User: What shape does this take?
Amino acid sequence: MAAPVPGPVPTSKTSIWAQTSIWAGVPALELNQLMDMSSREIRMPLNEVVAVLQDLNEFVVSLDQLGSRQAFGTADEYTVGKFVADWDVARRLSRARRVISVALDAQLSEDENAEIDALCDQGRFYGTHSATSTPTDQSS
Assistant: This one.
């Protein structure tokens, strides 16, 4: 686990939080026994937060536009696949995950990070049996 890097104290407060409702299939009782995440804060450099938000905004807007085009019959699965490949979506999302993970690793204990990893492992992943059902709206 990486130790915090000495440097200036961030002047903005960026909170990373999770709602128990997004963890489909995870019993609420099980989540309540984990660390209390409702009031925890993780500090991240603003430039990294902005870079992640820019990427996420591009993906959300672009995927929404692609969905509209699909609904009107002017785009298909190939178009979506081309977007994912051409816009380097996998690498950019991986970078976003790494930025958040580095901040968590630096500011939480090994046990707390293990709990978060366990929650993330319970996610739904495309191509697995647990991801075959229709996704529910998990937007904020």
In short: Residues 46-71 form the longest helix (26 residues). Confidence is low (pLDDT under 50) at residues 1-32. Residues 25 and 61 are 28 Å apart (CA to CA). DSSP finds five helices and no strands in the chain.
